[in-house]
Amino acid sequence: MTAARSSARTRPMGKVLSLFTGAGGLDVGLERAGLATVACMEVAADARAVLAANRPGWVMPGNGDVNTAAQYLTPRALGMKRGQLDLIAGGPPCQPFSKAAQWASTARSGMEDDRAKSVHGMLDLVEGFLPRALLVENVEGFLRGNGNASEVIDDGLAGINDRHGTSYRMVAKVVDAADYGVPQHRRRAIGIAYRDGAEVHLPEATHAGDPMRAWDVLWDLEEDEKPAATGQWAALLPSIPEGGNYLHLTARGDGEELFGWRTRYWSFLLKLAKDRPSWTLPASPGPSTGPFHWDNRPLSVREQMRLQTFPDEWSIDQPFRAGRRMVGNATPPLLAEVLGRTIVRDLELGGASARARLLSGAPSLLPERQPRVPRAVAPVPIPEAYQPHVGTKEAHPGEGVGPSPRRLATRG
Protein backbone atom coordinates (compact mmCIF):
# COMPACT_ATOMS: atom_id res chain seq x y z
CA MET A 1 0.00 0.00 0.00
CA THR A 2 1.44 3.38 -0.97
CA ALA A 3 1.67 6.41 1.28
CA ALA A 4 -0.84 8.14 -0.98
CA ARG A 5 -3.46 5.61 0.04
CA SER A 6 -2.86 5.75 3.78
CA SER A 7 -5.90 6.84 5.75
CA ALA A 8 -3.97 8.26 8.71
CA ARG A 9 -4.72 11.81 9.86
CA THR A 10 -2.60 14.04 12.02
CA ARG A 11 -3.69 15.77 15.23
CA PRO A 12 -4.88 19.30 14.35
CA MET A 13 -2.27 21.97 15.03
CA GLY A 14 -4.14 24.83 13.40
CA LYS A 15 -7.50 25.88 11.99
CA VAL A 16 -8.30 26.79 8.40
CA LEU A 17 -11.26 28.45 6.70
CA SER A 18 -11.52 26.96 3.23
CA LEU A 19 -12.81 29.04 0.30
CA PHE A 20 -13.86 27.72 -3.11
CA THR A 21 -13.45 24.24 -1.64
CA GLY A 22 -14.61 22.21 -4.65
CA ALA A 23 -13.93 18.50 -4.20
CA GLY A 24 -11.64 19.19 -1.24
CA GLY A 25 -8.18 18.69 -2.74
CA LEU A 26 -6.62 21.63 -0.93
CA ASP A 27 -8.29 20.67 2.35
CA VAL A 28 -7.24 17.02 2.19
CA GLY A 29 -3.61 18.08 1.87
CA LEU A 30 -3.83 20.75 4.56
CA GLU A 31 -5.47 18.21 6.85
CA ARG A 32 -2.46 15.91 6.39
CA ALA A 33 -0.27 18.88 7.34
CA GLY A 34 -2.11 19.27 10.65
CA LEU A 35 -4.58 21.99 9.68
CA ALA A 36 -8.22 21.28 10.50
CA THR A 37 -10.96 22.72 8.30
CA VAL A 38 -13.41 24.60 10.54
CA ALA A 39 -15.66 25.69 7.66
CA CYS A 40 -15.68 25.50 3.89
CA MET A 41 -17.34 27.76 1.35
CA GLU A 42 -18.55 26.07 -1.83
CA VAL A 43 -21.50 26.98 -4.05
CA ALA A 44 -21.78 23.89 -6.29
CA ALA A 45 -24.32 21.39 -5.00
CA ASP A 46 -22.44 18.33 -6.30
CA ALA A 47 -19.20 19.46 -4.67
CA ARG A 48 -21.00 20.15 -1.39
CA ALA A 49 -22.38 16.61 -1.55
CA VAL A 50 -18.86 15.23 -1.98
CA LEU A 51 -17.60 17.22 1.01
CA ALA A 52 -20.52 16.15 3.20
CA ALA A 53 -20.02 12.50 2.30
CA ASN A 54 -16.30 12.52 3.08
CA ARG A 55 -16.19 14.88 6.06
CA PRO A 56 -19.65 15.14 7.66
CA GLY A 57 -18.23 17.33 10.40
CA TRP A 58 -17.12 20.11 8.08
CA VAL A 59 -19.35 23.16 8.42
CA MET A 60 -20.68 24.67 5.17
CA PRO A 61 -22.14 28.10 6.05
CA GLY A 62 -24.89 29.73 4.02
CA ASN A 63 -25.02 29.05 0.30
CA GLY A 64 -21.24 28.93 -0.02
CA ASP A 65 -20.95 32.13 -2.06
CA VAL A 66 -17.67 33.81 -1.13
CA ASN A 67 -18.79 37.08 -2.73
CA THR A 68 -21.29 37.75 0.05
CA ALA A 69 -19.98 35.53 2.85
CA ALA A 70 -18.44 38.37 4.85
CA GLN A 71 -21.96 39.69 5.51
CA TYR A 72 -22.74 36.76 7.82
CA LEU A 73 -19.62 34.62 8.26
CA THR A 74 -17.78 36.13 11.22
CA PRO A 75 -15.25 34.77 13.71
CA ARG A 76 -18.01 34.63 16.31
CA ALA A 77 -20.12 32.45 14.01
CA LEU A 78 -17.30 29.90 14.10
CA GLY A 79 -16.76 30.15 17.85
CA MET A 80 -13.62 32.24 17.80
CA LYS A 81 -12.38 35.79 18.10
CA ARG A 82 -10.91 37.94 15.37
CA GLY A 83 -7.28 37.00 14.88
CA GLN A 84 -7.61 33.44 16.25
CA LEU A 85 -7.98 31.75 12.88
CA ASP A 86 -4.69 30.35 11.63
CA LEU A 87 -5.32 30.22 7.89
CA ILE A 88 -7.68 31.23 5.09
CA ALA A 89 -6.98 29.11 2.02
CA GLY A 90 -8.50 28.75 -1.39
CA GLY A 91 -8.30 29.16 -5.13
CA PRO A 92 -10.81 31.59 -6.68
CA PRO A 93 -12.51 30.40 -9.90
CA CYS A 94 -9.68 29.78 -12.34
CA GLN A 95 -11.51 30.12 -15.68
CA PRO A 96 -10.96 33.89 -16.01
CA PHE A 97 -7.21 33.40 -15.61
CA SER A 98 -6.68 30.24 -17.65
CA LYS A 99 -4.69 30.06 -20.88
CA ALA A 100 -7.96 29.56 -22.75
CA ALA A 101 -9.28 32.84 -21.37
CA GLN A 102 -6.07 34.60 -22.37
CA TRP A 103 -6.40 33.40 -25.96
CA ALA A 104 -10.13 33.19 -26.63
CA SER A 105 -11.51 36.08 -28.64
CA THR A 106 -14.98 35.94 -27.10
CA ALA A 107 -14.23 35.52 -23.39
CA ARG A 108 -13.73 38.23 -20.79
CA SER A 109 -10.29 38.07 -19.29
CA GLY A 110 -8.94 38.05 -15.77
CA MET A 111 -10.33 40.54 -13.29
CA GLU A 112 -12.78 41.86 -15.91
CA ASP A 113 -14.64 38.54 -15.73
CA ASP A 114 -17.56 38.51 -13.28
CA ARG A 115 -16.30 35.22 -11.82
CA ALA A 116 -13.12 36.99 -10.70
CA LYS A 117 -15.05 39.24 -8.33
CA SER A 118 -14.75 36.48 -5.75
CA VAL A 119 -11.18 37.73 -5.19
CA HIS A 120 -12.72 40.75 -3.48
CA GLY A 121 -14.96 38.44 -1.44
CA MET A 122 -11.89 36.55 -0.29
CA LEU A 123 -10.22 39.78 0.80
CA ASP A 124 -13.36 40.79 2.72
CA LEU A 125 -13.11 37.57 4.73
CA VAL A 126 -9.41 38.13 5.37
CA GLU A 127 -10.30 41.52 6.83
CA GLY A 128 -13.13 40.04 8.89
CA PHE A 129 -11.03 37.24 10.41
CA LEU A 130 -7.46 38.62 10.24
CA PRO A 131 -6.00 35.10 10.04
CA ARG A 132 -2.35 34.44 10.77
CA ALA A 133 -1.87 33.36 7.16
CA LEU A 134 -3.46 33.51 3.72
CA LEU A 135 -2.80 30.82 1.12
CA VAL A 136 -3.92 31.24 -2.49
CA GLU A 137 -3.51 28.53 -5.15
CA ASN A 138 -4.57 28.92 -8.76
CA VAL A 139 -3.62 28.60 -12.41
CA GLU A 140 -0.46 30.31 -13.64
CA GLY A 141 -2.44 33.18 -15.20
CA PHE A 142 -3.80 34.15 -11.78
CA LEU A 143 -0.53 35.94 -11.07
CA ARG A 144 0.78 36.44 -14.60
CA GLY A 145 -0.54 37.61 -17.93
CA ASN A 146 -3.47 39.72 -19.03
CA GLY A 147 -5.78 40.89 -16.23
CA ASN A 148 -4.10 38.87 -13.48
CA ALA A 149 -5.19 39.28 -9.87
CA SER A 150 -1.87 40.05 -8.18
CA GLU A 151 -2.32 43.84 -8.14
CA VAL A 152 -5.83 43.54 -6.71
CA ILE A 153 -4.62 41.22 -3.95
CA ASP A 154 -1.61 43.39 -3.14
CA ASP A 155 -3.75 46.54 -2.97
CA GLY A 156 -6.38 44.78 -0.87
CA LEU A 157 -3.85 43.49 1.63
CA ALA A 158 -2.21 46.93 1.83
CA GLY A 159 -5.60 48.43 2.70
CA ILE A 160 -6.14 45.82 5.42
CA ASN A 161 -2.69 46.59 6.81
CA ASP A 162 -3.46 50.31 6.93
CA ARG A 163 -6.75 49.80 8.74
CA HIS A 164 -5.68 47.12 11.21
CA GLY A 165 -1.95 47.48 11.74
CA THR A 166 -1.19 44.10 10.15
CA SER A 167 1.71 43.31 7.83
CA TYR A 168 0.28 41.01 5.16
CA ARG A 169 2.47 40.80 2.04
CA MET A 170 1.87 38.17 -0.60
CA VAL A 171 4.91 36.16 -1.66
CA ALA A 172 4.11 34.27 -4.83
CA LYS A 173 5.67 31.72 -7.12
CA VAL A 174 4.64 29.58 -10.09
CA VAL A 175 5.51 25.93 -9.53
CA ASP A 176 5.09 22.61 -11.29
CA ALA A 177 3.33 20.12 -9.02
CA ALA A 178 5.52 17.35 -10.46
CA ASP A 179 8.52 18.98 -8.78
CA TYR A 180 7.03 18.04 -5.41
CA GLY A 181 6.18 14.42 -6.13
CA VAL A 182 2.77 14.76 -7.81
CA PRO A 183 2.81 12.38 -10.82
CA GLN A 184 1.44 15.12 -13.05
CA HIS A 185 2.90 18.20 -14.68
CA ARG A 186 0.61 20.94 -13.41
CA ARG A 187 1.82 24.53 -13.27
CA ARG A 188 0.19 26.42 -10.44
CA ALA A 189 0.55 29.87 -8.94
CA ILE A 190 0.89 29.78 -5.17
CA GLY A 191 0.87 32.78 -2.87
CA ILE A 192 1.33 32.97 0.89
CA ALA A 193 1.02 36.01 3.17
CA TYR A 194 1.60 36.13 6.94
CA ARG A 195 -0.22 38.61 9.17
CA ASP A 196 2.88 39.60 11.11
CA GLY A 197 5.03 40.02 8.02
CA ALA A 198 7.19 37.00 8.85
CA GLU A 199 9.40 35.64 6.11
CA VAL A 200 7.67 33.15 3.82
CA HIS A 201 9.80 30.12 2.99
CA LEU A 202 8.24 28.77 -0.20
CA PRO A 203 8.98 25.05 -0.47
CA GLU A 204 11.98 23.93 -2.50
CA ALA A 205 11.43 21.37 -5.25
CA THR A 206 12.11 17.81 -4.13
CA HIS A 207 11.50 15.86 -7.33
CA ALA A 208 12.52 18.23 -10.13
CA GLY A 209 15.08 15.82 -11.57
CA ASP A 210 13.38 12.58 -10.61
CA PRO A 211 9.58 12.94 -10.89
CA MET A 212 7.02 10.36 -9.90
CA ARG A 213 5.51 8.56 -12.88
CA ALA A 214 1.99 7.68 -13.93
CA TRP A 215 2.76 4.00 -13.42
CA ASP A 216 3.70 4.64 -9.78
CA VAL A 217 0.09 5.45 -8.91
CA LEU A 218 -1.88 3.49 -11.52
CA TRP A 219 -0.08 0.14 -11.53
CA ASP A 220 -2.36 -1.63 -9.03
CA LEU A 221 -5.66 0.06 -9.82
CA GLU A 222 -8.28 -2.21 -11.34
CA GLU A 223 -11.37 -0.33 -12.44
CA ASP A 224 -14.69 -2.11 -12.87
CA GLU A 225 -16.00 0.57 -15.22
CA LYS A 226 -13.53 1.91 -17.77
CA PRO A 227 -14.74 4.87 -19.85
CA ALA A 228 -14.85 4.29 -23.57
CA ALA A 229 -13.26 6.67 -26.07
CA THR A 230 -15.80 8.53 -28.22
CA GLY A 231 -15.75 10.91 -31.15
CA GLN A 232 -14.60 10.64 -34.75
CA TRP A 233 -10.92 10.17 -33.84
CA ALA A 234 -11.34 7.63 -31.03
CA ALA A 235 -10.21 4.66 -33.13
CA LEU A 236 -6.89 6.41 -33.78
CA LEU A 237 -5.69 6.12 -30.19
CA PRO A 238 -4.04 2.68 -30.69
CA SER A 239 -2.03 4.30 -33.51
CA ILE A 240 -0.53 6.89 -31.15
CA PRO A 241 2.58 5.85 -29.16
CA GLU A 242 2.57 6.11 -25.39
CA GLY A 243 3.60 9.63 -24.43
CA GLY A 244 2.73 10.90 -27.90
CA ASN A 245 -0.08 12.85 -29.50
CA TYR A 246 -1.43 13.62 -32.96
CA LEU A 247 2.01 14.90 -34.07
CA HIS A 248 2.96 11.25 -34.56
CA LEU A 249 0.54 11.29 -37.52
CA THR A 250 2.07 14.32 -39.28
CA ALA A 251 4.84 14.85 -41.83
CA ARG A 252 7.38 15.20 -39.02
CA GLY A 253 6.15 12.21 -37.04
CA ASP A 254 6.85 8.52 -37.50
CA GLY A 255 3.34 7.56 -38.58
CA GLU A 256 1.30 8.23 -41.68
CA GLU A 257 0.45 11.86 -42.47
CA LEU A 258 -3.09 12.40 -41.33
CA PHE A 259 -2.81 15.90 -39.82
CA GLY A 260 -0.84 19.06 -40.50
CA TRP A 261 2.15 19.73 -38.26
CA ARG A 262 1.12 21.81 -35.22
CA THR A 263 -2.37 22.47 -36.58
CA ARG A 264 -4.09 20.96 -33.53
CA TYR A 265 -3.89 21.72 -29.83
CA TRP A 266 -1.19 19.87 -27.90
CA SER A 267 -3.55 17.60 -25.94
CA PHE A 268 -5.28 16.31 -29.11
CA LEU A 269 -5.02 12.48 -28.93
CA LEU A 270 -2.42 12.82 -26.14
CA LYS A 271 -1.60 9.57 -24.32
CA LEU A 272 0.05 8.89 -21.00
CA ALA A 273 3.46 7.28 -20.84
CA LYS A 274 3.93 4.79 -18.03
CA ASP A 275 7.44 6.05 -17.28
CA ARG A 276 6.63 9.77 -17.10
CA PRO A 277 4.32 12.06 -15.15
CA SER A 278 0.91 12.79 -16.59
CA TRP A 279 0.22 16.04 -18.35
CA THR A 280 -2.25 18.45 -16.73
CA LEU A 281 -5.66 16.87 -16.24
CA PRO A 282 -8.35 19.14 -17.74
CA ALA A 283 -11.70 19.70 -16.06
CA SER A 284 -13.95 19.61 -19.12
CA PRO A 285 -12.10 18.00 -22.03
CA GLY A 286 -13.56 17.34 -25.46
CA PRO A 287 -13.82 13.77 -26.77
CA SER A 288 -10.36 13.94 -28.38
CA THR A 289 -8.63 15.78 -25.54
CA GLY A 290 -6.12 13.87 -23.46
CA PRO A 291 -4.29 12.74 -21.60
CA PHE A 292 -5.75 9.32 -22.38
CA HIS A 293 -4.82 6.09 -20.65
CA TRP A 294 -2.17 4.00 -22.40
CA ASP A 295 -4.97 1.45 -22.85
CA ASN A 296 -6.50 3.86 -25.42
CA ARG A 297 -9.42 5.20 -23.42
CA PRO A 298 -10.26 8.15 -21.17
CA LEU A 299 -9.04 7.97 -17.61
CA SER A 300 -11.59 6.99 -14.99
CA VAL A 301 -12.35 9.41 -12.18
CA ARG A 302 -10.43 7.25 -9.70
CA GLU A 303 -7.41 7.12 -12.03
CA GLN A 304 -7.48 10.89 -12.28
CA MET A 305 -7.73 11.11 -8.49
CA ARG A 306 -4.63 8.93 -8.17
CA LEU A 307 -2.74 11.22 -10.59
CA GLN A 308 -3.84 14.17 -8.45
CA THR A 309 -2.71 12.30 -5.27
CA PHE A 310 -6.13 12.09 -3.61
CA PRO A 311 -6.04 9.27 -1.04
CA ASP A 312 -8.21 6.28 -1.91
CA GLU A 313 -10.31 6.94 1.19
CA TRP A 314 -11.65 10.08 -0.53
CA SER A 315 -14.76 9.33 -2.54
CA ILE A 316 -16.33 11.28 -5.41
CA ASP A 317 -19.58 9.43 -5.97
CA GLN A 318 -20.84 11.52 -8.87
CA PRO A 319 -21.58 10.97 -12.58
CA PHE A 320 -18.46 10.69 -14.73
CA ARG A 321 -18.52 14.19 -16.21
CA ALA A 322 -19.15 15.85 -12.84
CA GLY A 323 -16.47 13.79 -11.13
CA ARG A 324 -13.93 14.51 -13.87
CA ARG A 325 -14.70 18.23 -13.64
CA MET A 326 -14.21 18.30 -9.88
CA VAL A 327 -10.95 16.37 -10.02
CA GLY A 328 -9.64 18.49 -12.89
CA ASN A 329 -10.37 21.67 -10.94
CA ALA A 330 -8.83 20.42 -7.71
CA THR A 331 -5.55 21.32 -6.08
CA PRO A 332 -3.32 18.23 -5.93
CA PRO A 333 -3.58 17.19 -2.27
CA LEU A 334 0.16 16.39 -2.08
CA LEU A 335 1.03 19.93 -3.22
CA ALA A 336 -1.40 21.25 -0.58
CA GLU A 337 0.25 19.09 2.07
CA VAL A 338 3.67 20.46 1.13
CA LEU A 339 2.36 24.04 1.35
CA GLY A 340 0.61 23.30 4.63
CA ARG A 341 3.80 21.90 6.13
CA THR A 342 5.58 25.11 5.12
CA ILE A 343 2.98 27.22 6.93
CA VAL A 344 3.06 25.01 10.03
CA ARG A 345 6.85 25.34 10.12
CA ASP A 346 6.99 29.08 9.46
CA LEU A 347 4.31 29.96 12.02
CA GLU A 348 5.41 27.29 14.51
CA LEU A 349 1.87 25.97 14.86
CA GLY A 350 1.07 23.34 17.46
CA GLY A 351 3.41 21.98 20.09
CA ALA A 352 7.11 21.77 19.32
CA SER A 353 7.34 17.98 19.68
CA ALA A 354 4.21 17.29 17.63
CA ARG A 355 5.40 19.69 14.95
CA ALA A 356 8.80 18.03 14.85
CA ARG A 357 7.22 14.60 14.40
CA LEU A 358 5.00 15.88 11.60
CA LEU A 359 7.80 17.55 9.68
CA SER A 360 10.49 14.93 10.19
CA GLY A 361 9.35 12.52 7.51
CA ALA A 362 8.19 12.71 3.93
CA PRO A 363 4.69 14.04 3.20
CA SER A 364 2.10 11.35 3.86
CA LEU A 365 0.56 11.68 0.39
CA LEU A 366 3.82 11.12 -1.49
CA PRO A 367 3.39 8.01 -3.67
CA GLU A 368 5.76 5.06 -3.53
CA ARG A 369 8.03 4.60 -6.53
CA GLN A 370 7.61 1.24 -8.21
CA PRO A 371 10.81 -0.69 -8.97
CA ARG A 372 9.84 -1.69 -12.50
CA VAL A 373 7.85 0.00 -15.27
CA PRO A 374 6.53 -2.22 -18.08
CA ARG A 375 7.67 -1.58 -21.62
CA ALA A 376 5.47 0.62 -23.78
CA VAL A 377 3.16 -1.04 -26.28
CA ALA A 378 4.07 -0.13 -29.87
CA PRO A 379 1.47 1.79 -31.92
CA VAL A 380 -0.44 0.00 -34.67
CA PRO A 381 -1.10 1.21 -38.24
CA ILE A 382 -4.04 3.57 -38.56
CA PRO A 383 -7.38 1.85 -39.21
CA GLU A 384 -8.57 1.47 -42.78
CA ALA A 385 -11.44 3.93 -42.20
CA TYR A 386 -8.91 6.77 -41.92
CA GLN A 387 -6.84 5.83 -44.98
CA PRO A 388 -8.75 8.15 -47.36
CA HIS A 389 -7.57 11.10 -45.21
CA VAL A 390 -3.88 10.19 -45.51
CA GLY A 391 -1.81 12.56 -47.63
CA THR A 392 0.14 15.79 -47.64
CA LYS A 393 -1.22 18.34 -45.21
CA GLU A 394 -0.46 22.02 -44.72
CA ALA A 395 1.56 22.72 -41.58
CA HIS A 396 1.10 25.59 -39.16
CA PRO A 397 2.57 28.71 -40.83
CA GLY A 398 4.91 29.43 -37.94
CA GLU A 399 5.24 31.37 -34.72
CA GLY A 400 3.56 34.75 -34.87
CA VAL A 401 1.75 33.94 -38.12
CA GLY A 402 -1.11 31.81 -36.85
CA PRO A 403 -3.96 32.83 -34.52
CA SER A 404 -2.98 35.49 -32.00
CA PRO A 405 -4.17 35.84 -28.42
CA ARG A 406 -6.88 38.34 -27.69
CA ARG A 407 -4.45 40.67 -25.96
CA LEU A 408 -2.50 41.10 -29.22
CA ALA A 409 -5.65 41.56 -31.29
CA THR A 410 -6.88 44.36 -29.07
CA ARG A 411 -3.68 46.41 -28.96
CA GLY A 412 -3.90 49.88 -30.47
Walkthrough of the structure:
This protein is an alpha/beta fold. Mean pLDDT is 90; it is low at 1-7, 94-111 and 405-412. The chain has a 6-stranded mixed sheet, with helices on both faces. The chain has helices spanning 25-32, 45-54, 66-69, 99-103, 118-129, 150-164, 214-218, 301-308, 320-329, 333-347, 352-360, 406-409; strands at 14-19, 35-41, 87-90, 133-139, 171-176, 187-194. The chain is 25% helix and 9% strand.
The rounded distance between the terminal residues' Cα atoms is 59 Å
Radius of gyration, Cα only, in angstroms? 22 Å
Shape: elongated
What series of H and E elements makes up the topology? EHEHHEHHEHEEHHHHHH
Mean pLDDT: 90
The side-by-side strand order for the widest beta sheet comes to 2-1-3-4-6-5
Compact overview of the structure:
By secondary structure, this protein is α/β, with parallel strands linked by helices.
Describe this protein with a few key phrases.
412 residues, alpha/beta, six-stranded mixed β-sheet, 6 strands, elongated
Topology (elements, then pairings):
Layout (H helix, E strand, L loop, with lengths): L13 E6 L5 H8 L2 E7 L3 H10 L11 H4 L17 E4 L8 H5 L14 H12 L3 E7 L10 H15 L6 E6 L10 E8 L19 H5 L82 H8 L11 H10 L3 H15 L4 H9 L45 H4 L3
Parallel strand pairs: 1-2, 1-3, 3-4
Antiparallel strand pairs: 4-6, 5-6
Helix pairs in contact: 1-10, 5-6, 8-9
